[in-house]
Amino acid sequence: MQTVTMSRREIIRGLAAGSVVVIAPGCAYNETLGRNQLLFVSQGQMAQLAASAWSDLKKQEKISTDPKYLRRMQRVAPRMIQAAGGDPAQWEVQVFQSDQLNAFALPGGRIGFYTGILDIMENDDQIATVMGHEIAHVNFNHAGERYSQSSLAGAGLTVAQVAVSGSQYQNQILGVLGAGASLGVILPFSRKHELEADKFGVRYMSRARYNPGEAVRFWEKMAAKKSGQPPEFLSTHPSDATRITQLKREVALLGG
């Protein structure tokens, strides 16, 4: 097994993509999510890690000062943060100049939107769709949970390496175990996080008096822009059909 050292940029990408999870000491039941969360590190520790990554990102990426983007974010962000139980003064939201159809969240209340995704958002409700999704990732410490899951998978492979040491099939065995850890634990957890972020994101929208139905319309639009997806069991994100079906169900429960 190779030892992988992550660069700061890779850490940024991992945190932003939700590929790193936070785990506090032990396994605790989260009543809101209705499941256990295994956490090795606290939200505060993850926020410290993310702080330097966020600072570097703002130096490396062009921050937009275009009023047409900033006004939209200034309308939506405080309203959504408050609806999710947060204090807007403790969050930082930035718009980055890029054609990417993307947005991300980092631990510690940091959210980034790219101008590319804002350009296809027809109204404030659709901004609130993605904003709510990203706030939910932060609120439920998804980044820390993925980090913890990844740490456990790595520890398991270290033990496995010792067990098969000296075998002529060592590399092949470790490769299979690595794939098993990824497909069995890490990827499904990422899909679970994405669906949780969708679910609670639309709830935040409803509390903020945005139209949750726009979440369905926005994700249908995003799905139409894709040329194809890998099979869901090989993806870190749920399929578009899975995501949209859950959103429709949640919106119906909210009376949308």
Would you write up a description of this structure?
The chain is mainly α. It has one domain. It contains nine helices and five strands, in the order H-E-E-H-H-E-E-E-H-H-H-H-H-H. It has helices at 8-16, 43-60, 67-83, 115-119, 124-139, 142-163, 170-207, 213-224, 240-253, and strands spanning 24-30, 35-39, 92-96, 103-106, 110-114. The strands form two sheets. A three-stranded mixed sheet has the order 3-5-4, with helices on both faces. It starts with 7 loop residues before the first helix and ends with a helix.
Regarding quaternary structure, what we see is single chain
Radius of gyration: 19 Å
Number of strands: 5
**End-to-end CA span:** 50 Å
Q: What is the percentage of strand-forming residues?
A: 5-15%
Mean of residue pLDDT? Answer: 79
Q: How many helices?
A: 9
Which key terms come to mind for this protein?
256 residues, mainly alpha, 3-stranded mixed sheet, globular, disordered N terminus
Can I get a quick summary?
With 256 residues, the chain is mainly α.
Write the layout of secondary structure elements.
Elements lengths: L7 H9 L7 E7 L4 E5 L3 H18 L6 H17 L8 E5 L6 E4 L3 E5 H5 L4 H16 L2 H22 L6 H38 L5 H12 L15 H14 L3
